[in-house]
Design goal:
- The protein contains five helices and twelve strands.
- It is an alpha+beta fold.
- The protein folds into two domains: about 80 residues, no CATH class; about 110 residues, no CATH class.
- The strands form three sheets. A seven-stranded mixed β-sheet has the order 2-8-3-9-12-11-10, with helices on one face. Strands 1-6-5 form a three-stranded antiparallel β-sheet.
- About 25% of the residues are buried.
């Protein structure tokens, strides 16, 4: 259950000339924070330590010799992972409580009295944002993780693409849903540069219907997720 209260100074919002538009522009930072919390939860939240949150993918695939987990040679606490998720009704999908609305909801609480850092009062506008969401891994075979990628000494592109091929081949059927690779910024940079090289046969850069570039690996889109850390502690074998 994610909640945020966005507050803006009434005088400043009204001075803008378009109060509603100004409030929305100020609220975007709160919405982005909720999105980042959700992305972090998708990969890292653990009900063993935070029982009020849903169980993310990381704790479900915690060992490098577990099913659907491949490892590279990284060690220590400067590692990252690349994930392949096949989104679909029968594979992996999000969920929300019965009887509630899907996605982020908001309520305009109107004009309220706010307090500054010194305790002084002033008038402002307040908006309440709420997002109830969960994660369902209906079939564990449709998630794969490439772990222990050393971010201090990045693997060669050749070695990385070989492991990504192996990761793809762990999935029983890519047609069961919508497959997507997720990487952090540094890995995405490497793959984007490779896609711009004409001789590369694995990575391709195309454009979406809006004309924006999309990097894909053997037809599977690669998405950058800033919530993916480059400070993961290297996974060990099953104890």
């Amino acid at each position: 259950m994610l909640e945020a209260y966005a507050e803006v100074d009434k005088a400043l919002a009204d001075l803008n000339g378009n109060t509603a538009e100004f409030r929305l522009s100020e609220d975007r930072s709160f919405l982005e924070a909720m999105n980042q919390e959700m992305a972090t939860g998708l990969f890292y939240h653990d009900t063993a330590t935070d029982p009020e949150k849903f169980l993310g993918l990381g704790p479900r695939y915690p060992y490098y010799d577990a099913p659907n987990v491949k490892t590279m040679s990284g060690s220590g606490d400067d590692c990252t992972s690349i994930w392949l998720v096949v989104w679909g009704e029968n594979t992996v999908h999000g969920t929300f409580p019965k009887g509630s609305k899907a996605g982020i909801t908001h309520q305009d609480l109107g004009e309220v009295t706010l307090f500054d850092a010194a305790g002084g009062m002033y008038q402002g506008y307040r908006t309440h944002y709420k997002w109830d969401i969960g994660l369902v891994v209906r079939d564990w075979r449709y998630v794969a993780r490439l772990c222990n990628i050393d971010t201090g000494t990045w693997p060669t592109l050749s070695n990385l693409t070989k492991e990504m091929i192996k990761l793809k081949n762990l999935i029983p059927s890519l047609s069961m849903g919508r497959p997507v690779f997720y990487t952090n910024r540094a890995a995405k940079d490497m793959l984007d540069v490779a896609g711009a090289t004409a001789s590369n046969v694995y990575i391709n850069i195309s454009t979406d219907p809006f004309g924006l570039p999309v990097t894909s690996f053997q037809g599977i889109p690669i998405r950058r997720c800033d919530a993916l850390l480059d400070t993961e502690t290297a996974l060990s074998a099953t104890p």
